[in-house]
Amino acid sequence: MVELYIVKEEHTEDPTEIKSRINSQQKSIIADLAIDFIADHSTIFLDSSSTSQYIAKRLKDKKNLTIFTTNLSTADILDKQQNNHNIYFVGGNCRMEKLEVRVPSSY
């Protein structure tokens, strides 16, 4: 199923915010399931998907994770949790409209 959104010029909402609300219930379920596979002291990678942001919000109770991400919003969510996680932002081609970085292998 294809979902289309008509965005008027005066519309100021970030497209990433729209994307994060599409299928939000399913993304929340995925995040709840995924969190059980992440052990304390693990190293994980969260891509630039909005589902990864749902997962990031659930990492606050985990201990000493090393997290790599290509998404500015995900990095911001993790940083605001003020826990003992080590957060690394993977460099690459910056795409500000999506608040992400594309590494060469994802072109």
UniProtKB/TrEMBL annotation:
Task: Fetch the Gene3D superfamilies from UniProt.
Answer: 3.40.50.1360
Domain DeoR-like transcriptional repressor C-terminal sensor positions: 23-98
PANTHER family in the cross-refs: AGA OPERON TRANSCRIPTIONAL REPRESSOR-RELATED (PTHR30363:SF44), HTH-TYPE TRANSCRIPTIONAL REGULATOR SRLR-RELATED (PTHR30363)
State the name under which the record lists this protein.
Answer: DeoR-like transcriptional repressor C-terminal sensor domain-containing protein
Q: Which organism is it from?
A: Streptococcus sanguinis
